[in-house]
Amino acid sequence: MKKIIFFETTEKEKNILQKYSDFFKLVDFNEEKLTTENAKEFKDYEIVSVFIGSQLFQETLSQLNNLKFIATRSTGFDHIDLNYCKENDILISSVPNYGDHTVAEYTFALLLCLIRKVYNAYHQVRETGSFSLEGLQGEELFNKTLGVIGTGKIGQEVIKIAKGFSMKVIAYDKYPQEELAQKLGFEYVNLEDSLAQSDVVSLHVPYTKETHHLINKDNILKIKPGAYIINTARGGVIETDALYQALKKNHLAGAALDVLEEEGDLKEEQRMLSEKQDIPTEKLKTLLANHIFIDLDNVIISPHNAFNTKEALENILMTTMENINGYLNNELKNLIK
Asked: How many Cβ atoms sit within 10 Å of the Cβ of residue 173?
């Protein structure tokens, strides 16, 4: 029997999979991330399932001598070395659609929290007992322009919700879908115009070489002054220093970030420092800026939580199980090519 292991697993995930006893009994579970340091312990496994915390690059993959199939429990796959896998005949599947509604709803949760100062109001009452309205005046979404960057499944759900708030929607996508624009009632524009015309810019693109620092020092000041930016995509889509400078100059009114550039290192920084690792200067600057963001009143940060609902978790696991069963039965599904 082909050996299967799930990494980064929680008790909730195991409880869901236990309902499928025939599959469950084939799987080993590990709460840890799969890393370069522990990879040798799992060299006999043919199938591994990971989430985005496991960075599957050559240093790690080269130690997994029997690996033939990776089932990532995510839509994105920038944590996997695709070239190495291709060269070594390792197949990869993903979960392309697990929570379009989930992430879109969270996008507006962040936006409303930011633009209506919900957290500031909550924190003030909780910490000081003050019911003063001083400093808590927000803005309406009604009649504002939302610029949606990326009109895939999640972007489309964001557009639908925006229409419920009576927002005007413009969008940028490398591959415009004019029929979709007519159906949902929005207009495609180029990236520069979407930044210049939007009161709120919301990012919904995958993280690739092309989208790395899509928002950067050369274009961030082209965003409409006083606008807000929301990122529930990937941290690397925004150049951290560019965002910091735009906020510092009060060019942007605020930002809500569910993802951060170098967020993996942010979570591991205590270990990095204790082990006296050499941290590149640019990476160190990014980590420092992320800490500054956390303390800014006009920035809201959450811990890559947009996907995290009961329904989405079940969808992720069901699709992952289908992907693995497809591999076992030579009926491959959701392959990354």
From this structure: 19
Show pLDDT as tens, one digit a residue, over the chain (337 residues).
579 999 999 999 999 999 999 999 999 999 999 999 999 999 999 999 999 889 999 999 999 999 999 999 998 888 999 999 999 999 999 998 888 899 999 999 999 999 999 999 999 999 999 999 999 999 999 999 999 999 999 999 999 999 999 999 999 999 999 999 999 999 999 999 999 999 999 999 988 899 999 999 999 999 999 999 999 999 999 999 999 999 999 999 999 999 988 765 444 434 433 444 555 556 556 666 667 787 788 999 999 999 999 999 999 999 999 999 999 999 999 999 8
Domains 4-98+310-328 and 100-301 fall in the same CATH topology: yes
> CB within 8 A of 219, min separation 6: which ones?
191, 192, 195
Is 331 one of the annotated active-site residues of the chain?
Answer: no
Distance separating alpha carbons of residues 69 and 67, to the nearest angstrom: 6
116 catalytic per annotation: no
Q: Which of the following is catalytic: 8, 157, 261, 263?
A: 263
The total of other beta-carbon atoms located within 10 Å of residue 290's CB is 21
Selection from 242, 247, 161 nearest residue 204 by Cα: 161
Q: What is the CATH number of domain 100-301?
A: 3.40.50.720
Among 8, 234, 239, 261, which one carries the catalytic annotation?
Answer: 234
Which pTM does this prediction carry?
0.85
The domain spans of the chain are 4-98+310-328, 100-301
Is residue 304 flagged as an active site residue?
Answer: yes
CATH topology of domain 4-98+310-328: Rossmann fold (3.40.50)
| 39 to 2, 35, 98, 283: CA distances (angstroms) | 18, 6, 28, 25
